[in-house]
Write a structure and sequence with these properties.
By secondary structure, this protein is of the alpha/beta class. The chain contains three helices and seven strands. It has a five-stranded mixed β-sheet. It has a two-stranded antiparallel ribbon with strand order 4-5. It is elongated and about 65 Å long. The N and C termini lie far apart (about 40 Å).
Amino acid sequence: MNFILILLIIAGLGMVLLIVTKLFQSSRRRRLLMRVGKISTWNEIQIYPHRIAKMVHANFGYGKELWAIVGNTNDVDLELRSFKAGLLIFPRPHTSDVKKFCEMHQIVMADTMVKRSCR
């Protein structure tokens, strides 16, 4: 009985450590993206819709993210785990707002699968 309890506690601590590590890595990545100018707010995107070629939902291993692609390519920067010609929209707006925006400005909306080797 005590052995099972100890195993459950160890497993719980392992999960907590995993979650904290993931949160730390994602905040570090966000700071790095901000430093190189790859993060934008939803309000800034709405001001300059003519610069956006398409909007992409992607998951680079940090959860579902919304990217505004300013070029015609989806090239990925493996070091930053980002689109080379894209801006991460942070915080992520409501999906309904993004759909309305894309329809109003005739911007393509896409979901992209990122290869697991990108992690």
